[in-house]
Design a protein that fits this description.
44% of the residues lie in helices and 13% in strands. With 488 residues, it is α/β, with parallel strands linked by helices.
């Protein structure tokens, strides 16, 4: 049930310090660690979540754990699991309810299932823990096991909740009512926005921003040759020219009109290197707003002749293509809805006229190699004229952070996590109504036509990420939080 995740992070603090625009952040982090770590001496930190790949938590933990170890705080990452498939259906329901969606009907059987899986995982991890260890539980899946271990061992327990909603309704009340006995057992809770903190945790909760690693495979700078080589290795472009690295063992695939996935450019070339590209990359999740974005793109395309635009603008709109990309659904073990959501998108795609199917690439990114998957995301974002995150709900949205770091023109919904990042018309544009296909189509056209505006947003966005959302700030905030509350 409990699996340790082996972390191999070849990049350390000295490597970041060698990058001129990161050196000061590294110096500041080391200085703070020297001040804060003596209070944590003799303790070990355990990070617990429910999946080793797929989603923002699994993206952040390797570098967070690696840097904490390098600074001198022993830290281990473990993943909980269950052979009972109903458990992850239940936790997905809780996830949706916290985001204000789904059926709030939770009963005794759900409580019993959650308690049984929590107990089994707690029993397995218990033998590896000492009373002075620190336990950090990420999101609702392992929260029950954390509460049990707190009760049995008395060790410090922190709850890091990466999801939330800035509204109160029957769905959110049902979810937090279910989770409240476990959350109240924690010494301290950490959220991504003040609006997410439930009333019963007021006074024992704080904030830490999620963050990205600027030298990771997903976010590192790429030379033109490297970028083109990755596109070719991943099967994202056609190329007759040889490249030095070998092709990826598993390449990206694209949905065909018959509903099956095949190599990306088997029938028509997407034109990623040459055409204007609008991209959204997320999990296959209804709350990510894929369906309304697809409809908005269709209306953008269908309305080209009716739009009062110049010949150049009309050519740009005629050439633009939409890329909707996400991980292989079977590879994200804690999200059983992914297959269903992808199936719905496939049906929507198959109903499009054939000429419009050529304009849309619905792409599955293999997860067999985390590094290769990250490189695919990197090049797709860097080759995009506009990156969209049309989420109906979003705890934070690291795909937004990643695109901002790359100076992309970003359009994001007004979901709370996204507006924590994008300042409207400064770092990108906020979408007023992510389910209004006509309004989104107009905003897409405006962004595609405004290259100077996209460049201005990109410069501001990268500076904002540099100051607020890089891994160094996150590690420092963790050390401050642990130091302050353990000393108290």
């Amino acid at each position: 049930m409990i699996e340790s995740v082996e972390i191999r992070e070849p990049v350390g603090l000295d490597d970041y310090a060698d990058v001129v625009h990161l050196a000061e952040a590294v110096r500041s982090l080391r200085e703070e660690a020297t001040r804060l770590l003596p209070a944590l001496r003799g303790r070990k930190l355990w990070m617990v979540n429910s999946t080793a790949q797929g989603g923002g938590v699994a993206e952040m933990l390797p570098k967070l754990v690696s840097l904490l170890n390098e600074l001198g705080l022993p830290t281990e990452w473990v993943v909980m699991g269950s052979d009972e498939p109903r458990f992850f259906h239940l936790t997905k329901q809780l996830h949706n309810l916290i985001h204000g969606a789904g059926d709030p009907g939770l009963g005794d059987e759900d409580q019993q299932l959650y308690a049984a899986v929590s107990s089994a995982n707690a029993a397995e991890l218990k033998s590896r823990l000492r009373p002075d260890d620190i336990l950090v539980i990420h999101d609702p899946q392992p929260l029950g096991m954390g509460a049990l271990l707190k009760r049995e061992l008395g060790l410090p327990l922190f709850f890091r909740c990466h999801i939330g909603l800035d509204e109160d309704g029957p769905e959110t009340r049902a979810a937090w009512g279910f989770l409240r006995p476990y959350a109240e057992a924690c010494d301290y809770a950490i959220f991504s926005a003040p609006e997410y903190i439930p009333d019963f945790l007021a006074g024992k909760a704080g904030l830490i921003n999620p963050a990205i690693d600027p030298l990771s495979f997903k976010n590192r700078e790429l030379t033109p040759h490297k970028l083109a080589g990755i596109l070719k290795n991943a099967g994202l472009v056609r190329s007759r020219h040889p490249v030095v690295p070998e092709d990826f063992e598993r390449q990206a695939t694209r949905l065909r009109p018959d509903g099956t996935f095949a190599p990306m450019n088997e029938e028509t070339d997407v034109g990623i290197l040459f055409r204007p590209i609008v991209t959204q990359i997320s999990r296959w999740d209804r709350l990510k707003g894929y369906a309304p974005l697809l409809e908005a793109f269709v209306r953008l395309k269908q309305g080209i002749l009716a739009r009062d635009v110049s010949d150049r603008q009309r050519r740009r709109l005629g050439q633009v293509r939409l890329v909707l990309a996400g991980p292989e659904p079977s590879a994200v073990t804690d999200d059983p809805e992914a297959q269903d959501v992808l199936a719905e998108l496939i049906e929507g795609y198959r109903r499009l006229p054939h000429w419009l199917q050529d304009e849309v690439a619905l792409v599955s990114l293999p997860m067999s190699s985390r590094d290769e998957n990250a490189l695919m995301v990197n090049v797709l974002q860097r080759c995009s004229s506009v990156v969209v995150q049309n989420s109906l709900r979003e705890g934070f949205g690291l795909t937004v952070t990643e695109a901002m770091w790359k100076q992309c023109g970003v359009l994001g919904s007004r979901a709370c996590g996204i507006r924590q990042q994008i300042r409207d018309d400064m770092d990108g544009r906020l979408i007023d109504d992510c389910e209004d296909a006509d309004g989104l189509a107009e905003l897409l056209q405006t962004a595609l036509d405004d290259l100077p505006g996209r460049m201005r947003w990109g410069h501001s966005a990268q500076r904002r990420v540099h100051d607020e959302f890089l891994i160094f700030t996150q590690v420092r905030r963790w050390l401050e939080t642990l130091h302050d509350h353990l000393r108290a």
